[in-house]
Sequence to fold (203 residues):
Amino acid sequence: MLRRMPTLYVVRHGHVHLTPTDPEDPELSDQGHSQAAAVAEQLHARLPGTLPVLTSPMRRCRETAAPLCSMWGVEPMVEPRVAEVPGPPTDLLPRAEWIRRSLLVDWTEFIELGASLLKGHDSVMTHWRAGVLEAIFGCPHDVVIFSHFVPVNVLTGRATGSDRVACFLPDHTSVTVFETTDNDIRLVEKGREKQRPTVHPGK
Fold:
C-alpha cells in the first residue's frame, strides 16, 4: 500500500514594518497584520480541519502564524531550518542588496558571492539550503509552514528542477502548496506572485 504524500501549505510572511524595532528581526507592519488575519481565514476555510503549524523563528513569521494558531487553538512549532537564507554581515553587503542579487543568479553564483564576501560563508549557505529540504522531508503529515521568500524558492526549485535562486516571486502571505515523498517534492499550486521585478527582504 502506497503511503499518502503529506501536503505542505507554505506561507510567506506578511509585510514588515518600515522602521522596525530590530532591523535584524523586524516585526509586521499594520498591513502585515491584516494580511496575516486574512490568510488565517483563507486557510481555515480551505482546510477540512486543524493541522500542525511550523514557523521560522523570525518575528515576522511568528506574527504571521499567530492568527491561524489562535483560530485553531494550537501552538506553533518553531523550526529554525525554514528561516531565511543567512547573509554576510551587513557591513560587507547590506541585506537589501544581498536579496536583490539573489533574484539575478543561480545557486552556484549565489554561493560563490557568499564565499567572496566572507570566508566559509559558502559552507553556511550550502548547509542552510540542505536544511530547508531536510525540514520539509521530515514532515510526516500535512502541515502549514510559515517561512520566507528564499526557502519557498528552494522548495519550488527542487520541485521544478530549476537552479535559479528566485524561481518565482511569492507575494506576502501567498500560499504555495507541495506534496512530498521520502526524497522528492511535487509542486501542487504556486502561490500568488508579486508584480514588481524586485523584492525587498521585508517589504
Observations:
- The chain is about 40% helix and 15% strand.
- The helical segments are 30-46, 59-72, 95-102, 107-117, 121-137, 149-160.
- Residues 198-203 have pLDDT under 50 and may be disordered.
